Amino acid sequence: MINAPLRRMNREFVVISAFIFALLASCQNAGRAPLRPEVAQAPASGRNTSAATQPEKRNPGKLIHVLVALCDNEHQGIVPVPARIGNGDDPANNLYWGARFGVKTFFKRANDWKSIAESRNPRAEILERLVFKHQTKDVYLIADAYRGREIKQCVADFFEFSAGHAGETVRANSVELRAGGGADLVAYVGHDGLMDFSLDSRPRKTDDRRRDAMMLACMSKRYFAEPLRNTGASPLLWTTGLMAPEAYVLKAAIDGWVLNENGERIRRRAAAAYNQYQQCGMNAASKLFSSGW
Fold it and tell me: Would you say residue 293 has pLDDT above 90?
């Protein structure tokens, strides 16, 4: 006989899967719009990046900065999901943050990452910030939950950070981290906002430092490619079709990055994780992810 907790877990998985199908349909509808040109004007972040340079103070280990645009029924071009997980002002229950496969929940349950700091509203557009330390490697991870209505700012910050701009000092207990443009790997998770809006600027690389970038959003290779070229960052992982930007893919890809694996191995890790949770078949999952230009 199946016990009650297991029945509840199965029901939760089925419900979340239904929500994901709705989101994928939303991406498909949005993806029919033509690509929009971006205008090179003032930085979208609103912060002064003209004097940004490679951070003088290096981090105590490798640093990953993850930017999550919270799922938002009201302010994003998506098929609405149930209000509880589609409220872009409620990170605790949000599909991409506090839900079962959200970044916060998934990494807090991961045995190889330890949560070392947590804060609320570090910036007006960011509702929650988490800092993790890898259990066996000198690698730190910062994850920011952006308000759903601030998705444009989130995407703009992703490109600013990828270019080495907008360095920010984040303190986690006794550890001081140079985040933003000081990160070695910058990742975006959420709806592909570039289907709905254009960037106000295309940040250019500010130094000769290598940075990797991950873009977990529908058809991110199509929509993120041109702005990313200007940043000088290397596209470690992005997508060629519709996808559910859930944390198991992010975790699998980061696992490979921590081990210094090449892009192809990381792509295979992402595909395997996606197939494990989505049961879409390895052939389909393999075609969904791409690494490099």
Answer: yes
**pLDDT tens digits, 19-58:** 555 555 555 554 444 333 333 333 344 454 433 444 456 8
Cβ count within 10 A of residue 56: 8
Angle between helix 151-162 and 220-231 (nearest 10): 50
Angle (CA) 52-56-57 rounded to 5° is: 125
Backbone angles phi, psi at 116, to 5 degrees: -115, -10
Query: Residue 5 to residues 1, 19, 45: CA-CA distances in angstroms?
Result: 12, 21, 45
Return left, alpha or beta for 232; rule: phi > 0 is left, psi -120 to 50 is alpha, else beta: left
Percent of the chain with pLDDT over 90: 77
The DSSP-derived string for the chain is ---HHHHHHHHHHHHHHHHHHHHHHHHHHHTTSPP------S-TT-S--TT--S-SSPPSSEEEEEEEE---TTTSSSPPPPTTTS-TT-GGG-TTTTSTTSHHHHHHT-TTEEEEEEEEEEETTEEEEEEEEESSSSEEEEEEEE-GGGHHHHHHHHHHHHTT-S-EEEEETTEEEEEGGG-SEEEEES--GGGT---S------SS---EEEEESTTHHHHHHHHHHHHT-EEEEEESS-----HHHHHHHHHHHHTT--HHHHHHHHHHHHHHHH---HHHHHHHEE---
Q: Are 247 and 270 in contact (CB under 8 A)?
A: no
Please name the amino acid found at residue 157.
Answer: D
